[in-house]
């Protein structure tokens, strides 16, 4: 027995909620993108003030030269977060952030041996960014206003 109807939508236990879910679908996706981008930009704001401040840390992870990768990390988090918030170059911004977050998963889980407990937030962030890599922008984005998406 299928839980979907002919139009591919799920049969709801409370059918009256369907119109609410439909009305809020795109807005909730936009809210998730804005919050994800905003928090990523805020997180990166301390790094963009001193873009080479993480040079030793990234070299400790095996990324040489540290100054280059520290600058790239700072820009990815700060500007990528702003771009994601705005829905501008949504997929590339989310992809760049995803790579950074997957490195932090490795760093916390393996390099410093914290396992799942240490990598938990990075895993959650990775999942959110992966969603936007695949989904891309919606109509509430700069990409949509430009009429093009990556």
Description of the molecule:
This protein is mainly alpha-helical and 150 residues long. It has one domain (25-142). 71% of the residues lie in helices and 0% in strands. The protein is built from six helices and no strands. α3 (66-86) crosses α4 and α4 (90-111) runs antiparallel to α5. The model has no long low-confidence stretch (mean pLDDT 93).
Explain briefly what this protein structure is:
By secondary structure, the chain is mainly alpha-helical. 71% of the residues lie in helices and 0% in strands.
> Gap between N and C termini, in Å?
39 Å
Number of strands: 0
The secondary structure category is mainly alpha
Helix content: over 70%
| Number of domains as seen in the coordinates | 1
What kind of sheet is the major sheet? none
Low-confidence stretches: none
Strand proportion, as a percent range, falls in under 5%
Number of continuous helical runs: 6
H-E string: HHHHHH
- Summed over residues and divided by their number, the pLDDT gives a mean of 93
Radius of gyration: 19 Å
Principal-axes geometry comes out as globular
Subcellular location: Cell membrane
Organism: Aquamicrobium lusatiense
Main location: membrane
Family: Belongs to the DoxX family.
């Amino acid at each position: 027995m299928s839980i979907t109807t002919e139009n591919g939508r799920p049969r709801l236990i409370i059918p009256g909620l369907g119109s609410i879910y439909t009305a809020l679908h795109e807005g909730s996706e936009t809210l998730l993108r804005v919050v994800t981008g905003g928090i990523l930009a805020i997180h990166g704001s301390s790094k963009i003030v001193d873009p080479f401040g993480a040079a030793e840390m990234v070299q400790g992870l095996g990324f040489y030269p540290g100054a280059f990768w520290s600058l790239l990390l700072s820009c990815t988090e700060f500007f990528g977060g702003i771009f994601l918030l705005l829905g501008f170059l949504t997929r590339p911004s989310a992809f760049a952030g995803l790579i950074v977050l997957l490195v932090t998963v490795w760093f916390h889980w393996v390099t410093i041996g914290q396992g799942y407990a240490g990598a938990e937030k990075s895993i959650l962030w990775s999942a959110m960014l992966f969603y936007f890599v695949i989904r891309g922008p919606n109509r509430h984005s700069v990409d949509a206003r430009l009429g093009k998406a990556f």
